[in-house]
Design goal:
There is one protein chain. This protein is an alpha/beta fold and 407 residues long. The protein folds into 2 domains: 21-67 and 170-243 and 335-403, 3-Layer(bba) Sandwich (FAD/NAD(P)-binding domain); 101-163 and 245-332, D-Amino Acid Oxidase, subunit A, domain 2 (D-Amino Acid Oxidase, Chain A, domain 2, 2-Layer Sandwich), CATH 3.30.9.10. 27% of the residues lie in helices and 24% in strands. The protein contains 10 helices and 20 strands. The chain has helices at 28-41, 58-61, 75-93, 111-126, 136-142, 170-183, 231-235, 300-313, 363-376, 400-403; strands at 21-24, 46-49, 65-66, 104-108, 132-134, 158-162, 166-167, 187-189, 194-200, 206-213, 216-219, 222-225, 245-254, 264-267, 272-276, 282-286, 322-332, 339-342, 346-347, 349-353. The chain has an 8-stranded mixed sheet with strand order 5-6-4-14-15-16-13-17, sandwiched between helices. Strand 9 and strand 10 form a beta hairpin. The mean pLDDT is 94.
């Protein structure tokens, strides 16, 4: 009797000589772009190139916190739209992505932080995002185990409460998108590295003609850079320098504990965030490492920092054991907002990059809007503020106040 099925969620394919669109990077952004190209616009001759296995990069190394409580009038509607797509994802893709809207609580430990959260709360309300500034009594009701005494070095003064926020299973999201893409005939090529991007024409009038990979040449008039961490490297293949810096980002997970923590906890002053999974583990993350490199290894100083800051909030966890620690890399723009656009320098080359520490929560809407841009040539108003041209036109979207902590 057959007890288990071993059907693959996506199939292997030989590389074809040409595609309508080649997407470099098969994480959540690349997969979402391919999915909406196929579903919304009927463009299905698409190849997704992934250097390693699916979910190896940032899509498998993040802590998958979903929220919309950003600060700028450009960022808030964008992340709110992505939150809405996540809420409908399990139904639309016919795959349980295990999205738990357990709420998101950003703590403030100083007067300036309280003022900053108050501005975010009012901006959120004006843009129809459910957020409110709450005091210690309400915080204690939501998180009884949190140390709200005067003992800590930085006592908790207030918090930004965002009920629609929560956590999701990042691997389930990747698998669901990959399965949906495969069902439409969109090809996913794992272990396929982009070695170069071919162009023709002279400076000022160049256009993309294809991609050179470790498995051969591909002709394509449209190439999309959806990489995380190596976005600047890929863009240099067409002679384009992006204003990005790459930093490691680390997290860890503890042994399972009895459930005691429902919301996601973020400290804007301690630069740590904590949530408890449905298996009882605590997922703990830090801010980006203060140096630039491509390392994927965990380090002892960062682990010590995560432990120290966690114990400021939950001193009762002093004897809990850490089971795993990991690192990822992320690329950050000067204004802490992404780049989603084409470029006049090279026709047919598009980017969905520069996500820093907040890319996973934006994957669905970024992919949907980028697919619209590829199919119609028109940028959706949600992504117009994130064009590469904003850096030369002095139209920065300063999102650091809501994105500087790695969450």
């Amino acid at each position: 009797m057959q007890l288990f099925r071993h059907d693959r969620l996506w199939r292997r394919h030989p590389i074809k000589p040409s595609y309508d669109v080649v997407i470099i990077g098969a994480g959540v952004h690349g997969l979402a772009t391919a999915y909406y190209l196929g579903r919304a616009h009927g463009i299905r001759k698409v190849a997704l190139l992934e250097k390693n296995w699916l979910g190896y990069g940032a899509s498998g190394r993040n802590t998958a916190i979903i929220r919309a409580n950003y600060r700028t009038p450009e960022g808030v509607p964008f992340y709110l739209a992505s939150l809405g797509l996540y809420e409908e994802m399990s139904h639309e893709l016919e795959w349980n992505v295990l999205f738990t809207q357990c709420g998101h609580l950003t703590l403030a430990h100083t007067d300036s932080s309280v003022n900053g959260l108050r501005v975010r709360a009012e901006t959120n309300k004006l843009l129809d995002v459910q957020s409110a500034l709450i005091g210690p009594e309400e915080i204690r009701r939501l998180v009884p185990g949190l140390d709200l005494s005067a003992r800590p070095r930085f006592p908790v003064l207030a918090a930004l409460w965002h009920p629609p926020g929560g956590i999701i299973r990042h691997d389930a999201v990747v698998w669901a998108y990959a399965r949906a893409c495969d069902r439409m005939g969109i090809e996913i090529h794992e272990h396929t590295e982009a070695l170069g991007i071919r162009t023709e024409g002279t400076d000022g009038a160049r256009r993309v003609t294809g991609v050179t990979t470790n498995r051969g040449e591909i002709h394509a008039a449209t190439v999309v850079n959806c990489t995380a961490g190596w976005a600047s490297t890929v863009s240099r293949m067409v002679g384009l320098d992006l204003p990005l810096v790459t930093h490691p980002l680390q997290a860890c997970v503890t042994e399972p504990l009895k459930p005691f923590l429902t919301p996601v906890i973020v400290s804007s002053n301690l630069h740590v965030y904590i949530n408890q999974t449905d298996r009882g583990e605590l997922v703990i993350g830090a801010e980006i490492d203060p140096y630039q490199c491509y390392s994927l290894r965990g380090t002892l100083p960062t682990l010590e920092q995560m432990a120290q800051q966690t114990l400021e909030l939950f001193p009762q966890l002093h004897s809990v054991r850490v089971l795993r620690q990991w690192g990822g890399i992320c690329e950050i723009t000067p204004d802490y907002s992404p780049i989603i656009s084409g470029t006049d320098a090279v026709q047919g080359f598009f980017m969905d990059v520069g996500w820093g520490t907040y890319g996973f929560k934006a994957g669905p809407i970024a992919g949907k809007c980028l697919a619209e841009l590829l199919a119609t040539g028109r940028a959706n108003p949600l992504i117009e503020p994130f064009a590469l041209s904003r850096f030369s036109q002095d139209r920065l979207v300063g999102e650091k106040a809501a994105a500087a902590v790695s969450h």
